[in-house]
DNA sequence: CTGTTAGCGCTTTCAG
DNA sequence: CTGAAAGCGCTAACAG
């Protein structure tokens, strides 16, 4: 906020031409080290700051990636965003973040704004029913998270593996009566895929499935609990930590401290409050890393459309 | 991502001069409605998108505000950011968001990057021990949240009122033994100010204070609980929901369901899990709104340095 | 009201 | 290796 120094000022100050300064700025190797040193010194002393706007306009790249997430206060998404930020910032990019609020319309509006801003690429968090057509036209300049597509790069969570991990944990303990509380299958990923994973695990283990699905809220899970609790029930696998919270709460009321509960999300709060629980980490943070790395590689042409699946862990 | 249409193409296509197109773009009133209509039509048909980079460079304003928060996964901060986003997006600005991770150094780095990007203004979430000097030089182009300064606009939370609200709630119920669990007073706002508010409330009500402070974590509060629980204790006021969670958990174990607990943060999870609790809402979302509105007014010169205090509510 | 003319600050040929 | 010159796409006087 001091002055408005331009590249020309620096050129004069260091007794070289505009272009030489520019070369220093762009790390052009064909500058005599001596000259470079001198110019860099002047830049440092003067506190000169090259204008990104001008660079963006000239060079075409604004060094910005757009991130569209559904909600800022989604714990899973903001963990992933932290991962993204870490990577892109490292690579000299900045992020402009927008909330889709689960609306395809808003998503597209945001996308339009981002294009207008000349962003280098975008990372979009998918949601159930989101329309990918607009994103697909971005081809290698986009990566989507948590949703299926062939036509564009994606980083998905291993919904099957997540549930399998929880199931196996219980199965290995010799438990045979494991119920499930999930969300409505109209939600492709958290709903349908995780439910199916549960069913398959049951089949493979030869145990009788017992499950209920509803909304993604504590209250919903709380209410559903009674329907999946039998006298013999030994554990309940939940599609998310939020759900697990509701289930554990209800179990506590029912005095069923014998029933173990698992959730998804790696919330430390869950096991803090309810001792008899654990949470599977779908790897949100790492997925953020992965998607950002993928995008950056694609932008530099080192990589084409790819599909990654984030491994879950306990 | 279709073509690279420029203002000149639009000019030719609609048979007018560059500047007329520019005037249409900038909503300059001195354009014949007829002409404007024609140009707008062409713009729409061609799918032309003006380059923000060029506009930013020329006009000086990139229509971007920078937001520096401490952590993306801080519930209070991301509620506030949602509020900010709503307002600035409405006003045609976009946001580039960065995490300071409670480091003054990172904050300053981010600030530098934002300046380089020619952002119109910044909103910074303060943290204990953050250094405001760099921000102060931004004068009317900055607003800080949750921290004290005279030299720059700020939106603060009513730390005193927050605790007072909780205390009064209990006092009105005739309770006389109200303890407090907070965070270390080395933290100015959440620590010191809230603790002082508690002490003052006690004094005014003529009751004996009983409190402990520690870290801002469930565990810390959990461990501190025993120290503030006496046989006669009727309620415990906590400096945050996180703390309240730890306290309520410990009380549950102690079988003290008679003790009411209050937190700060409006987390629905708290009262869902522990019935005998309630939470004060410091007004995070509204503070976001307020700070964004303030910044925008300042940027347009309609407002000078101002200090706002967000009212809390139950 | 509208076209013409300058640049904004920077990168990039193109000649030295 | 380095300077001069030509724009990038747009806005803002300046003349019509």
UniProtKB/TrEMBL annotation, chains A, B:
Keywords: DNA-binding, Transcription, Transcription regulation. The gene is treR. It comes from the Bacteria. GO terms for biological process: negative regulation of DNA-templated transcription; trehalose metabolic process. PANTHER family: HTH-TYPE TRANSCRIPTIONAL REGULATOR TRER, LACI-RELATED TRANSCRIPTIONAL REPRESSOR. This is Trehalose operon repressor. Transmembrane segments: none annotated. SUPFAM superfamilies: lambda repressor-like DNA-binding domains (SSF47413), Periplasmic binding protein-like I (SSF53822). Gene3D superfamilies: 3.40.50.2300, lambda repressor-like DNA-binding domains (1.10.260.40).
């Amino acid at each position: 906020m001091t002055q408005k120094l331009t590249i020309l000022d620096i050129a004069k100050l260091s007794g070289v031409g505009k272009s030489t300064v520019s070369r220093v700025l762009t790390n052009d190797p064909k500058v005599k080290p001596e000259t470079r040193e001198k110019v860099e010194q002047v830049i440092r002393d003067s506190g000169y700051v090259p204008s990104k706007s001008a660079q963006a306009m000239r060079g075409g790249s604004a060094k910005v990636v757009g991130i569209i997430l559904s909600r800022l206060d989604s714990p899973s998404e903001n963990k992933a965003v932290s991962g993204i930020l870490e990577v892109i910032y490292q690579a000299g990019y900045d992020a402009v973040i927008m909330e889709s609020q689960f609306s395809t319309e808003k998503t597209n509006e945001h996308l339009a704004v981002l294009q207008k801003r000349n962003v280098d690429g975008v990372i979009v968090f998918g949601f159930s029913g989101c329309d990918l057509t607009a994103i697909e036209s971005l081809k290698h300049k986009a990566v989507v998270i948590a949703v299926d597509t062939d036509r564009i790069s994606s980083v998905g969570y291993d919904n099957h593996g997540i549930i399998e991990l929880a199931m196996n944990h219980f199965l290995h303990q010799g438990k045979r009566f494991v119920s499930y509380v999930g969300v409505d299958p109209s939600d492709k990923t958290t709903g349908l895929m995780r439910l199916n994973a549960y069913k398959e695990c049951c089949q493979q283990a030869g145990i009788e499935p017992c499950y209920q699905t509803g909304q993604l809220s504590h209250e919903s899970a709380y209410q559903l609990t009674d329907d999946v609790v039998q006298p013999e029930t030994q554990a309940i696998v939940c599609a998310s930590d939020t759900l697990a919270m509701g289930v554990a709460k209800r179990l506590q009321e029912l005095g069923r401290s014998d029933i173990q509960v698992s959730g998804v999300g790696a919330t430390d709060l869950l096991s803090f409050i309810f001792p008899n629980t654990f949470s599977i980490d779908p790897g949100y943070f790492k997925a953020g890393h992965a998607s950002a790395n993928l995008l950056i590689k694609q932008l530099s042409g080192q990589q084409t459309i790819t599909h990654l699946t984030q491994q879950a862990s306990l």
